[in-house]
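Problem statement: downstream parser choked on a complex file, so we are re-checking the raw output for the glutamic acid run. The parser issue turned out to be on our end (a line-ending mismatch), but while we're here, posting the original submission so the record is complete.
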Amino acid sequence: MKEIRTRYAPSPTGYLHIGGARTALFNYLFAKHNNGKFIFRLEDTDVSRNVPGGEESQLNNLAWLKIIPDESPINPNEKYGKYRQTEKLARYNEIIEKMIQDKTAYIAFDSSSELEQQRKEQEAKGIMSFRYDRNWLKISDEEKEKRLKNKEYSIRVSLPKNKVYSWNDLVRGNISVNTDEIGDWVIQKSDGYPTYNFAVVVDDHDMEITHVFRGEEHITNTPKQLAIYDLLNWEHPSFGHLTIITNMEGKKLSKRDASLSQFIEDYKNDGYVPDAIFNFLALLGWTSEDAKELMSIEELIEKFDYRRLSKSPSKFDINKMNWFSKQYMKKEKNEDLIQKINFSKNHDIVWKNLFVETYKQNCCNIKEMNESLIIYNQELEPIKNENNKIINEFINQLKSKDFTIENIQEAINKTKEITNTSGKELFMTIRKATTNLEHGPELAKTIFLFGKEKIYYRLGIKHED
Ligand code: GLU
C-alpha cells in the first residue's frame, strides 16, 4: 500500500494562527493515524508579504505544540525536491515550458488596463463573473516573437471547454465544477513567479502527497488545481476542506480582532500547557466516537477518524480552552512548574513546592501563577476589627495552636461548628479577613503560604497570645 503523506504549507507571512495550527494538526493526526508522514513546506512566492523569521516562527510554534514534521526545509528529503517554493522556480518553469509546448498553456500579453477593458465589456453584456477571452491563442508566431521582446506577459492555462471536474471531498462529499465557470487563469505572473494554484499542484505532485486537509476558502481553488493535474496527466491527492472557526458570536475569526488571542505564540508566552492546546484544537471541528474530550496526543492519534470531521463551523470558546488547560496544569510535575515561575529569593523549596501544588489546581497557565505570586511578596495591612463573630472565633482557634496547614484547617472547621455558619459565608469571611482576597485556591494552604508573621499581623494577634 502507498505511504500516506500529508502536508501543511503556510506562507511565512507571520506567526502561527489558531486556524493554521488546526489545519496542521488534522494533517498530522491523519498521517500519524495511518503510520504516514507529515510534511511542512513553505509557500513563499508572494515575496513582498514574507516576514523575516516567518518560517522559523511557524516551525517553532508547531514544535511547541508537539507537531513535529517528518520533512521540512530544515529536514528535507532530497528525493522530493525543495521545501521552499522560492527555491523551486526552475522546476515550475520546466513544467510551464512543457505545458506551453503541449498547448495546455499559453502566453498572454494583456496589460492590466486591457484586462480591465475586457472586464467592463463583459459587464456591459451582463456577464456576471469575468471570463478571460482567449485572443492571445490566435496570434501568429511572428507577432508573438515581436511582443515577447518588449512586452510584459503572463502564462495562462488553456482549460478544456465545458469539462466537469469533480472530487469526493473527505469532509463534504461530492463537489463538481464546470470549467466554463472558471476561465483560463494565470499560472505564472509577469514577475516570473508561479501562482499559488499552479505551484501547489507541482509541490503536491513532487512530494507524493496523498491527502490534503485545508481550509474551506480553498474549495474554489480545487477545480483549478484538478485541471492542472488532468492536463499534466498526474494523479491528484484526496482533498478535505475544513469548516471555518468562528468567535462566540458566530463570526469568522479575524486576525485583526484584538479581543481574542489568536496566535499560538500568545498561548506559549502565557505559559499554557501545549498538550492542552493540542487537545483543544483537535476538538475544534472533530469529535471522537466515544465523545471523550480529554485525550493525550497518543490517544488522539489512535482515535482520529477523518469521517468525524465536522461539516459545520466550530466556535472558538476561550473558556473551554482554559478549562482544558486547567485539567492539564493539575497533572504537571511540581518540579517542572517551579522552574517556570518567577519566585523571589526569599522563598525556599518547601514553600515553592506548596505554592505550585496549591495553585496548579486553579490556574490555566504560568502567567496566572505568576500573578498569584505577587500577593505573597507584598505586606498585609491589619484588618479593622469589626467584632465579627466568625473572625473572632477563627482568631481564637488559630492562636491556640501551632501554625500548620492541618491546624489552620482545624481552626476553620471548629469556627464553622461553633458559629454555625454556612460554608460559603464562612470561607468568604475568613478568606477576606486573612488574605484580603475574594477568591483563591484551598483556603488553609493559602493562609499558610502567607506565613505566621503576616497573618498574625493582619489579624492583630500578638505572638505572646
Ligand atoms: N498557503 C496556503 C494557505 O495557507 C496553503 C493552501 C493549501 O493547503 O493548499 O492557505
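For whoever reads this later: The radius of gyration is 31 Å.
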